[in-house]
Amino acid sequence: MEDKKYSKLKAAFEATQPQVPADFTEQVMKRIEEQPSVYQSKRRRVWQYPIIAAVAASIVVLLTFYYLYNQEETAVEQPLVTQQIEQKDSSLKAEIKEPKIMIAQEKAVTDKARAAIQRRTATVIAHKVSTTIPATDSLDYYIDKIERELAQVDESLYIERMNKVIRADERLQRIVNSYILHTLDKEGRPQTADNMYNVKTEEDEE
Amino acid sequence: MTYILVMKQQDEKDQQMIDHVLRDGRQADYALLVDSYRTRLFAFVATMVTCREDAEELTQDCFVKAYTQLAQYDSQRSSFYTWLRSISYRLCLDHIRRHPGVWLETDELTLQAISDDEANSVLDTDDDQRIQLLVEAIRRLPPTERLLIQQHYFEQQPLAVIAEVTDTDAGTLATRLHRIRKKLYQYIKTREHGR
Fold it and tell me: Model confidence over A146-160: pLDDT tens digits?
């Protein structure tokens, strides 16, 4: 490029051009300072990423432990509850096979049992509606879970279970028998001395 | 060769200051870069945008934008000044689109009638009157053509560098320069015969 060839033309052209103001740099730097900080020290930038990665990894690990802990709880309680239900089921089925007299029971004890079952069913239904039973509150959770399982058991099995309970307790038998007799007397029916539980009282023996 | 060495030293110096800004956030180093290039860049912008206030604002915009995008600057692709000019060129084009003007235009037939020799020697003059007419004609050219004359003849920039700044190719720029010279010749002839 020839420097001198167009120098006069260049000078004439530049004479018509405006000049840059003296405080131009200060104005530019002032505008830059007003902007949000763009650059940080590279050391800070370098450390940012490992810190972010460490925090993210900690969160992932905590979530993993939380998930695994909940999985274990569910896995433990499932076979336990199933086992308990199976045991109850088999014992109740064995009791059904025994010969029994149901007439008085339907009149008195079954009424009470039915009332109890209704109360229990209502409780279970209330619990079934609730879907937010916390798995971490272990005792309440177990009780609710067992009740839900038992709610599915047939009503007759409940009654059989009550029979078994009554038969197992001598005093309770006497109370139930006297209640039955009292109820039957009120209704004017002939008394029956043959209580279905076949427990011989002292009077019988005499 | 000396010119190339000087440019290389300047590039290395610029890169050092840019590294300081990026690595340590040292704004003082960027102020040094602004000081180094503010006069030339202002002349570049003022060539395209004739209003002084607009040229000042656009030049500031260019430096501020360059600061925010400093991490994207690649010294392997171009020098820092070339990169600055490419930013300011786009800013100026946007400004011109928003503020269109009336520029010197000549019909094709008239331009074809002018010989290449006449066109090539139009700028090669020491005559003061002709120089004044040329300056007048150059200022009436469209902004991009005016810039091409200023960068190639006054800033002595190679067509390859100007092509990089304006995102074109050197061949297209050479054709445009030839056409611009014919325009200037036509303008001078018209004014000289009119006197």
Answer: 778 777 666 667 778
Q: Which pTM does this prediction carry? A: 0.58
> How near does any CA of chain B get to the CA of A7, in Å?
7
Q: What is the rounded distance in angstroms from the CA atom of residue A104 to the CA atom of residue A165? A: 16
Residues 6+ apart with CB under 8 A from A147: A120, A123, A124, A127
| Helices A109-129, A138-151: crossing angle, 10 deg rounding | 120
Q: Is B124 near chain A, with CB under 8 Å?
A: yes
| Chain B residues with CB-CB distance to A40 below 8 A | 25
Domain-terminating residue out of B71, B98, B125: B98
ipTM for the complex? 0.89
Q: Tell me which of A29, A30, A39 to substitute to probe the interface with B (most B C-beta atoms closer than 10 Å).
A: A39
CB pair distance less than 8 Å for B64 and A40: no
| Same-domain status, B125 and B147 | yes
pLDDT of A37 higher than 80: no
What span, in angstroms and rounded, lies between the C-alpha atoms of B48 and B41? 11
CA angle B41, B47, B50 (to 5 degrees): 115
Of B98, B133, B162, which closes a domain?
B98
DSSP conformational letter for B77: T
Q: 11-40 in A: which are within 8 Å (CB) of B?
A: 12-14, 16-21, 24-25, 27-29, 31-33, 35, 37-40
Which residues in chain A have their CB less than 8 angstroms from residue B126's CB? 8
**What is chain A's Cα-based Rg?**
44
Residues B7 and B93 in one domain: yes
Report the distance separating Cα A131 and Cα A121, nearest Å: 17
- Report how far residue B7's alpha carbon sits from residue B158's, in angstroms, rounded to the nearest whole number: 14
Contacts of A74 (CB under 8 A, 6+ apart): A135
For residue range A1-20, what is the model confidence (pLDDT) as tens digits? 445 678 999 999 999 999 99
The verdict on B93 and B9 lying in the same domain is: yes
Residue A21 per-residue DSSP state = P
Whether residue B115 is predicted with pLDDT greater than 50 in this model: the reply is: yes
CATH code for the domain of B142: 1.10.10.10
